[in-house]
Amino acid sequence: MSTNPLSPAALLQGMADALPTHAQGDTTSDLSSSHDALALFAHACMASLDFRLMGFDESKNDEATCRDLAPRLPENWNASFNNCSFVYAHSQSALRFVIKVDRMGGKAEIRGLAIDDDRIARVEVTSKDFISNGALPVRITLTPESTEDRSDLPQKLQAVFINEARITDLASLIKINIIQKLLPSLQKEGYEESPDDRAAREDAEDAGRRPPRQPVMPQPIPQPAQPNPYGGPVDPPPRHPVPAGDFPPPGFEDELEVNRPPRGFPPGASPFGNLGADDLNPPGLRTPRPLQTEYWRASSPWRWASWNASYLRRHRRGWHWRRAVRPSSTPRGPF
């Protein structure tokens, strides 16, 4: 059965192999901070999956120096304070990859970028959740002959982490959030991608191949509901226009003269005159008597004019109209 390249034992051994050679007479530590421990762990993950170190700057290629020192790191790998950068290449891709580990207070951000690609993969971790500061700094054991003894270095590095489960969790975070996004479908014996992320990546690729969706147009406001949409018994009948043509429909006789105006009245005149027009007038405001006025005006216009003039002339003098009008000139009417 093949061994998982991201197992805790493999990563601890990779970290032990990557620490630079301790110079003779140097009394400084080889791993002194939690930030350097996270950066060294990220490099061990990349190296375990056959990523080849090309240098520490995107604009500068130090592949020859890194290849001569491999699997060791150069002494200046952590020269920048709170910032470590690695540049890699892989045989299964034509791109170069940049991994940066930045410290921000008590947290660290691990970012990955494929050069010539605008997508940045990142993961944020809290140092105290994975690193035990009590095990720092770490020094490589020296023999009496001033030679290195790295046999106990994996155990020292394991003590830097809180426990083995935390190593597995940190490796899983880097694998899912960084490696699988930078180089999907990576082929390595014992390495398997997370099923969930593989399905998500396939869905994203399918979505990229599909044409963009059309914007959803808002639905129009529905018309208010009607109690009887097809008409009711009290609705008026529909008005059908008279069809135009050479043979229009015949007319019908109005035997009861319902549609004809009253006889004896001019067109547009009402047989009741302005009856009820003075109902809202204040008391004392007189109006003409409609029935008498309309009847006499229609029956004899000249007699109405002469009687009205005579009435007005005698009314101004204070005479009563019955004494002033002659019997022969008295108008006939219902009053």
Automatic annotation (TrEMBL):
<keyword id="KW-0647">Proteasome</keyword>
<protein>
    <recommendedName>
        <fullName>PI31 proteasome regulator N-terminal domain-containing protein</fullName>
    </recommendedName>
</protein>
<feature type="compositionally biased region" description="Pro residues">
    <location>
        <begin position="213"/>
        <end position="227"/>
    </location>
</feature>
<dbReference type="Pfam" id="PF11566">
    <property type="entry name" value="PI31_Prot_N"/>
</dbReference>
<feature type="compositionally biased region" description="Basic and acidic residues">
    <location>
        <begin position="196"/>
        <end position="209"/>
    </location>
</feature>
<comment type="similarity">
    <text>Belongs to the proteasome inhibitor PI31 family.</text>
</comment>
<dbReference type="InterPro" id="IPR045128">
    <property type="entry name" value="PI31-like"/>
</dbReference>
<dbReference type="InterPro" id="IPR021625">
    <property type="entry name" value="PI31_Prot_N"/>
</dbReference>
<feature type="region of interest" description="Disordered">
    <location>
        <begin position="188"/>
        <end position="286"/>
    </location>
</feature>
<feature type="domain" description="PI31 proteasome regulator N-terminal">
    <location>
        <begin position="27"/>
        <end position="189"/>
    </location>
</feature>
<feature type="compositionally biased region" description="Pro residues">
    <location>
        <begin position="234"/>
        <end position="251"/>
    </location>
</feature>
